[in-house]
Backbone:
């Protein structure tokens, strides 16, 4: 693979603007022209009472689970707002869904006790199956809209699970005309999706359009199987998916796609 396998390729990033910098930089390094078009905006919960209650009771939990770097950032933002200690109780074990989430925790001086082999909820459950969770209290800090597989699976193992909303994703206002124009003018080679929310909001933005026709000749790249499943549910096809569900993994997979093509 050459140094600039993506030279001349126009790649659309749909993730939130504050998160897209590193991804854009990696793609540009490989020669791509990056178009940032966030289909999601990440904001605090509408009501923070549940999170505040969980923060006040942290010492009573055995585990805290973070399923995204966003969850970590908004959790610590709330700690600062409530003028709470920024260190977690020493008795509390921490699970991070993947390396990006783990890095955010490490930057905050938190030791991570468990990262699953694959960076999805199913893999977290596989790891916890080897532990005795009967009677254990687990705090799951995540987005408002998320799959129920994790809390259901943990409860089946005998754990008491509290799910708290630490952030929510919304669709930025407007943009459908501009998005349609980008796609119809043939200005995009790849559309990247890094979460199910980015997919849902993209499809909702173009809900009056024939997606199949609009996306003809454009490759769709997904960070992992959960996001890919959402793409397929909207009737779209996935051409690119990395073996490692990370931004560097996705960048390499896009480069490989064009190198082999």
Residues:
């Amino acid at each position: 693979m050459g140094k600039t396998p993506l030279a001349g390729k126009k790649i659309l990033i749909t993730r939130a603007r504050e998160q897209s910098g590193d991804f854009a930089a990696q793609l540009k390094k490989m020669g791509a022209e990056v178009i940032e078009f966030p289909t999601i905006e990440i904001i605090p919960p509408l009501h923070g009472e549940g999170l505040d209650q969980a923060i006040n009771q942290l010492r009573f939990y055995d585990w805290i689970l973070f399923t995204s770097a966003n969850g970590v950032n908004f959790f610590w933002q709330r700690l600062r707002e409530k003028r709470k200690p920024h260190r977690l109780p020493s008795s509390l074990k921490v699970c991070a869904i993947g390396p990006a989430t783990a890095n955010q925790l490490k930057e905050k001086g938190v030791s991570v006790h468990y990262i699953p082999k694959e960076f999805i909820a199913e893999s977290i459950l596989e790891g916890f199956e080897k532990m005795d969770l009967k009677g254990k209290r687990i705090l799951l800090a995540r987005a408002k809209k998320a799959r129920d597989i994790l809390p259901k699976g943990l409860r089946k193992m005998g754990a008491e699970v509290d799910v708290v909303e630490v952030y929510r994703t919304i669709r930025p206002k407007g943009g459908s005309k501009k998005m349609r124009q980008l796609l119809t003018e043939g200005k995009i080679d790849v559309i990247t999706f890094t979460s199910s929310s980015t997919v849902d909001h993209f499809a909702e933005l173009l809900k009056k359009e024939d997606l199949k026709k609009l996306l003809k000749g454009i490759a769709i790249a997904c960070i992992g199987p959960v996001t890919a499943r959402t793409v397929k549910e909207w009737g779209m096809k996935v051409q690119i998916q990395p073996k490692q569900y990370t931004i560097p993994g996705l960048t390499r997979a896009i480069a490989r796609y064009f190198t082999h093509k």
